[in-house]
Structure formats: C-alpha cells, structure tokens
Amino acid sequence: VSQSRYDDPNEFTKVLESLTAFPNVKFNSDIKEILHHKGIREDVIISDSKAEILYVHRRAGNREIYWLNSRSAADNEASLSFRVSGKIPKRFDPINGTIHPIAYQMKNGRTMINMKFSPWDATFIIFDQPTTSSSLKVPEWKTIHTKIIEGDWLIRFQPQRSAPDQPVTFS
Questions:
Q1: Strand pairing of 153-155 and 104-107?
Q2: What is the pTM of this model?
Q3: Tens-place pLDDT, residues 6-45
Q4: Using CA atoms, how far apart are residues 57 and 64, in angstroms rounded to an integer?
C-alpha cells in the first residue's frame, strides 16, 4: 500500500494553505455572505414556511425550472421569492402532467409567489414566456363537500329569463 499525501497531516495542511492564495477559495465562510459580497442575489428566498422546503434550479434554454419539495407530513405553505423577473411562472404537477397558472407579483427584479403544499408535495415552477405584467391574480380553488338531497325538491326560476314560469319539482 502506497502512502497518500493526505495521510500526512503536515502535507495536507500545506495543500490547504496553498489554496488560500486563490481569491475565489474561502474557508469558514457562509456561502450567502460570499455571494452577497460578489453582488450575486439569492436564487430563492423561502419565508413563512411551516416546514423545510428544498429546491433545485436549472436553466434549459430560455426556461428557468425550479423543483420544490416540502419536507413535511403535514400541509405546508410558504412565501417564495425567485431571482427571475419578466417571465410568467406556471406550476407543473409531475404526478398528473398538468400545468396551472399561478398568482405572482414581480418587484425589484424578483417574482414572489405564495404557495401551498400537500404533505411531502413536490412540484415544479417553470418560468418561460415573457411578460410585461407585474402581477397576476388567480382565484383559489376550494373543495366544497356536497350533500345528498333526500326526497323531492322544488326550484323556482327568475321571471323573464327563458326559464319555466311555474316551479319545477325534481326527484
């Protein structure tokens, strides 16, 4: 077995010290502070979440693609701020392949989205089409529990609306 230079603590320390000569190599520093010092804004800012949310960002052509994952067995929600502006965000559901518009607001070069997550939810936010609109409001979908109507029920229609003049009974 040949001895590796990493087996020698003095040699390892010497290599580490030589790396400090490079201006882009930092030890014992916070990555957020380093990026801020370089003038690079945070890619995603996650706030007001009930549980941890992980993300991965990649670029494909003109698309900005963010994968988000709620790390909770309970419902979760968060305010998300993306370092993207001038593009429409859409939510892509990888389970059923649907794409939905999502409410957003653009301000100071960022796009803000309030998002709700199901337990262990993973979803994509895709920015691709350009826009000059600084915001979009999308109505929230709500689940309404229905009731079974037992027996007959009577419906009366508004007069002069091309509906029957007399009440109609349904069974």
A1: unpaired
A2: 0.69
A3: 567 788 778 878 888 888 787 788 888 888 888 889 999 9
A4: 7
